């Protein structure tokens, strides 16, 4: 049974992430979507991991072979614990290449785990979680970028903070 692990911060999850999960679920028997912390983005984090877990579980509930969970610590340790045979990541354009290569190589050096890359769907390649956070801050309409449940959650959260 081929088990793959797709990790990210998903803060917030976008249509780009959901598209990737759907496509990745077709190239393995079991896909683990793991919500982690990127130390470089910790300060700007918007949702906590538990909030993202609830949202991603809802969006993937109809995909039989997808499991969503949170993790802490090193990704490769978690991948081993879950017995994943490979990692999945996405690239939107060559701009992602250097960062992704560094992570893939480091993860390979640490554990021998290979990373398989899927190209982001062209419709979503300009979307990033930080773009959504910025648009949210300016109260833009997010309907083209994230599911309604994410947009609702973003605005509930921002409204709480501005009270
Ligand atoms: N559609 C939409 N957006 C996409 C995308 C797609 N198909 N593919 C990538 N992105 C965007 C994300 O929205 C995100 O945007 P942002 O930078 O504005 O937040 C960015 O590309 C990549 O983020 P994400 O996929 O969420 O991953 P990440 O790089 O923030 O997370 C971890 C990386 C959590 C997997 C990594 O930090 C990790 O493994 N941490 C654990 C500790 C560890 O092992 N560290 C060593 C790693 S070598």
In short:
The protein has 163 residues and is of the alpha/beta class. 42% of the residues lie in helices and 18% in strands.
Description:
By secondary structure, the chain is of the alpha/beta class. Helices cover 42% and strands 18% of the residues. The protein is built from six helices and five strands; from the N terminus they run E-H-E-H-E-H-E-H-E-H-H. Strands 3-2-1-4-5 form a five-stranded parallel β-sheet, with helices on both faces. Helix 2 (49-60) links the parallel strand 2 and strand 3. The site of coenzyme A has 24 residues, from strand 1, helix 1, helix 4 and helix 5.
Write a concise keyword list for the protein shown above:
binds coenzyme A, 5-stranded parallel β-sheet, about 160 residues, alpha/beta, single chain, about 40% helix
Q: Uncertain segments of ≥5 residues (pLDDT<50)?
A: none
- Mean pLDDT score: 95
The outline comes out as: globular
Number of beta strands: 5
Question: Would you tell me the structural class of the helices and strands?
Answer: alpha/beta
Could you spell the SSE succession in H and E letters? EHEHEHEHEHH
Biggest pleated-sheet summary: 5 strands, parallel
């Amino acid at each position: 049974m081929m088990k793959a692990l797709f990790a990210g911060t998903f803060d917030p999850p976008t249509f780009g992430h959901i598209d990737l999960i759907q496509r990745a679920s077709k190239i393995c028997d079991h896909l683990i979507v793991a919500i982690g912390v990127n130390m470089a983005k910790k300060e700007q984090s918007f949702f906590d991991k538990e909030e993202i877990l609830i949202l991603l579980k809802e969006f993937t509930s109809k995909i039989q072979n997808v499991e969503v969970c949170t993790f802490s610590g090193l990704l490769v340790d978690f991948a081993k614990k879950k017995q994943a045979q490979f990692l999945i990541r996405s690239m939107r354009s060559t701009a992602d290449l250097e960062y992704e290569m560094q992570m893939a190589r480091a993860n390979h050096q640490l554990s021998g785990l290979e990373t398989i890359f899927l190209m982001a769907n062209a419709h979503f390649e300009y979307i990033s979680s930080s773009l959504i956070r910025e648009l949210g801050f300016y109260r833009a309409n997010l309907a083209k970028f994230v599911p309604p449940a994410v947009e609702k959650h973003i605005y509930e959260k921002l409204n709480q903070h501005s009270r």
